[in-house]
Amino acid sequence: MVTNTVKKRLLDFTMETQLGHALCWAAVGTSCALFYDSNSSWTQCTLASASITPAPGDCCSDPENSPCDIPWFLQNKQDIGSFVTAGIADNFHKDFISFTQLMEQLDQGRLVAYLLELDIDGEIADMDKFSHFVVIAGYESTTTEQNVTVYDPYFGTSEMPYKEFVTNYKCHGGSVLGHKVTHSLVEYTFFSKPAKKS
């Protein structure tokens, strides 16, 4: 008789809802910073104010209509972005990682973030595709399945096979500003770690 061995891990993670249409990077950065340090003083608007260059000014007086509601980074080759500002960046990788590598990170209590390119059935701001950041903070592995728990600052939390996540996330009904997401693909994987104590 074959037993369906289960291995799973679910980190105690909460994803904030992004405050603006383009602030997924700030929501992910803030949520991950708070995961590693519940006393962190970072908020989406303060992290955005400190991360964007050149300095945009005050992002907190009206976050939904601020000059900070723009696409930005978690970490890039110039070493800027919300993960860098919050001190939790631990490198990044083009494309997605294997499920085994993902499990290793989560087993160490480390969150893994992803940048997805989403195709939409129409145009938003003269674009028919856009990029979006999410976090994986849980997995369940059996002899037949490899599932993950995805925390999305726009769509909310969902569970799905890892294979589906990396190649077709939210193709099954997600919509943005009235447009259906028709396809997606992981562009980058971002590793994180606790910030160093000063």
From TrEMBL:
Gene3D superfamilies named in the record: Cysteine proteinases (3.90.70.10)
Domain Peptidase C39-like stretches: 13-154
InterPro entries: Peptidase_C39-like
A Pfam family that the UniProt record links to this protein: Peptidase_C39_2
Entry protein name: Peptidase C39-like domain-containing protein
